Amino acid sequence: MSHTAHIRSHRKPRRSASKVAMRAGVAGGVLSTLAVAGASGSANAAEPVTQTLELPTLTADLGAQVAESAQATQQAAANYQLQAERDAAAAQAAKEAKADLAEAKKKAAAKKKAEQEAARQAAAERASRSAERATLSASVSASASTSTSTSTSPSTSTATGSAAAVIAFAKAQVGDAYVSGGTGPNSWDCSGLMQAAFKQVGVDLPRVSQDQSTAGTPVSLSNLQPGDILYWGSAGSAYHVAVYVGGGEFVGAQNPSTGVVERSLDYDPPTGAVRVL
Listing from the earlier edge strand, what are the strands of the sheet with 217-219? Predict the structure, then answer.
């Protein structure tokens, strides 16, 4: 036996095909596991990237919400300010309206007081005129009675006394209003006043000035006597009449602006005159 017969060969023994295949399978399995793990790791590593990409979108939405909230807050503040201004304006308007109402009430009260005072004065004037007329009627009756009993010429004495009564009545109406067609007791036209004045002594004159201008005996303006009827215009077509009261004066219902007045003949010279007393 050789001394080397027990020395093992340095050559590596050949691996069997089955072992090689098994090892290859194991290696493949390990690689597959590593590949899956790698893929899983890659997937896990990708998740933060996905979240990072979504973050700007969330941040933009939040910014829009904040901006919208700020705008709503500003709008609410503007609405509050507008409402406050409206409330202040309404309060000022109410204050002014209250002041205007108080002023209107004050003026209405003053006007009412003035109207009441004017009515009182008018009533007092009417009462005074009524008293004057009553006194005048009594005076006319007494004068006529005295003239009839003492005069040797009744017609002349009655005419004089009647003229005085006519004049007194006409003067008592001075200040009354002129109203076309007026026949008293507080408003007259020219012929209405003449008719009422002469009626006091029983003389019935025609109603209109045209007829009154021819109702008596024509007399010259240079020979006038108290109680004569003056007329303006032509006899029979006169447009105005009045009574001569003596002293160059006459009394008549002139026009709406003056009413019943006493004026000088120079103020409005008449055209002619007639005598009925």
Answer: 217-219, 272-275, 229-232, 240-246, 249-255, 259-264
- How far apart CA 79 and CA 81 sit, in angstroms, is 5
Q: How is residue 94 written in tokens?
A: 């109410």
Interatomic CA distance for residues 103 and 42, integer angstroms:
92
Per-residue pLDDT, averaged over 56-68, amounts to: 70
What is the tens place of the pLDDT at every residue in 117-131?
Answer: 877 776 666 666 555
Q: At what angle do helices 154-172 and 190-199 cross, to 10 degrees?
A: 130
Both tokens of 100, joined, read: 């205007």
Structure tokens at 206: 């025609």
CA distances to 70, 87, 92 from 99, rounded to whole Å, are 44, 18, 11
Evaluate if residue 48 carries a pLDDT over 80.
no
pLDDT in tens, 147-196: 433 333 333 333 458 999 999 999 999 999 999 999 999 999 999 999 99
Cα angle 139-204-239, degrees, rounded to a multiple of 5:
110
> Domain 112-275 is classified in which CATH homologous superfamily?
endopeptidase domain like (from Nostoc punctiforme) (3.90.1720.10)
CA distances from 56 to 46, 60, 271 (A): 17, 6, 117
Beta strands in the chain (DSSP E): 177-178, 187-188, 217-219, 229-232, 240-246, 249-255, 259-264, 272-275
Residue 249's nearest CA partner among 270, 271, 218, 277 is: 270
Q: What are the extents of the domains in the chain?
A: 112-275
- Split at pLDDT 50, 70, 90, the class of 16 is low
* Res. 252: pLDDT tops 50: yes
